[in-house]
TrEMBL record:
Transmembrane segments: none annotated. One of its GO terms (biological process) is cell adhesion. Residues 1-22 form the signal peptide. It comes from Salmonella enteritidis. Coiled coil: none annotated. The lineage of its organism: Bacteria, Pseudomonadati, Pseudomonadota, Gammaproteobacteria, Enterobacterales. This is Type 1 fimbrial protein. Pfam families: Fimbrial. GO terms for cellular component: pilus.
Length: 182
């Protein structure tokens, strides 16, 4: 079982200061380094971690083909309020996991499921924009004014895959999320 707290490598901030006179070449320079080492510990989903299974509501083939898919939320609450040091930001990347693939280039948040003809449209709960699933894309989320709590839930809606014939049955879709504090 996943620990209820996520320990992150210490955050290191460095300030470099060099003293050099431009007109006179000097054989030596002075470099002073000062830094802060911080231990940021945040809870994910009230201590439940990232691993979760979301039950999507039933949708008929007729509804799916008519563009009337159903939605469900995958909660992702990052609570750093109890951490002695608050992160300045969160970096989050989302990619398809085993059994799922991209329907397009990934920037539109469309995920192909294990079932032919059935996909998921993924959007951020906080702003309704598509979740980019493109390789290398990362979402930068600056510090929030809500006491160190980020609500990064993802809304998944069933959609028909263009060019494929959907059939009834069970389907799965999976994501890999990478979360980093800075």
């Amino acid at each position: 079982m996943m620990s209820s707290k996520l320990n992150v490598l210490p955050l290191v901030l460095m300030l470099f200061e060099c003293s050099v006179l431009a007109a006179t070449p000097l054989p030596d320079t002075t470099m002073r380094i000062s830094m802060v080492v911080a231990d940021i510990t945040c809870q994910l989903n009230n201590g439940q971690g990232l691993s979760q299974q979301i039950a999507m509501p039933l949708v008929s083939l007729a509804e799916l083909q008519a563009g009337q898919g159903r939605s469900a939320e995958a909660p992702l609450i990052v609570n750093c309020a109890g951490s002695s040091t608050q992160p300045q930001s969160i970096l989050l990347s989302v990619q398809p996991a085993a059994g799922s693939s991209l329907m397009t280039d990934g920037s539109d948040g469309q995920l192909k499921t294990s079932k032919t003809g059935v996909g998921l449209q993924l959007t951020w709960k906080y702003n309704g924009l598509p979740v980019s699933l493109a390789e290398g894309d990362t979402v930068f989320l600056p510090a929030m004014s809500q006491g160190g709590v980020w609500n990064l839930g993802i809304v998944a809606k069933t959609i028909a895959v263009v060019g494929e014939t959907a059939s009834s049955g069970e389907y799965t879709g999976a994501l890999t999320l990478r979360l980093r504090y800075s």
